[in-house]
Amino acid sequence: MDKSVLNAIPQLRINGKKPTEIAALLGISVNTVKSHIRRHPQTSVTVYCPNCGAVVPQNPGRKTKKFCSDKCRMTWWNHTYRSGEKR
After folding, report:
1. Is residue 7, in this structure, part of any structural domain at all?
2. CA-CA distance, 69 to 65, in Å (whole number)?
3. Domain presence at residue 28
4. Can you say how many angstroms the Cα of residue 56 is from the centroid of all Cα atoms in its chain?
5. Domain, as residue range, for 24
6. Tens digit of pLDDT for each residue in 3-62?
7. N or C: which end of the chain has fewer CB within 10 A?
């Protein structure tokens, strides 16, 4: 892999792309992307709230937060529970 591809993988991860999407965009193997991600864990991944889409601030050394607030968490779970959707 050349350096432009190596630099593009973390940037695409920050933008919220999944490994299969990154592989398709860059024209490389999915396993290559997954290996790069696994070997370079220092790349932080931005977490977006599944209810409102806002960026969720993370606390270092703590469990990864999924929701930006209790209101979003309760709204999302109530909607998911009532509609019968799978996570």
Report:
1. yes
2. 10
3. yes
4. 11
5. 3-39
6. 888 889 988 887 778 899 999 999 999 999 999 988 887 656 678 888 888 888 888 888
7. C
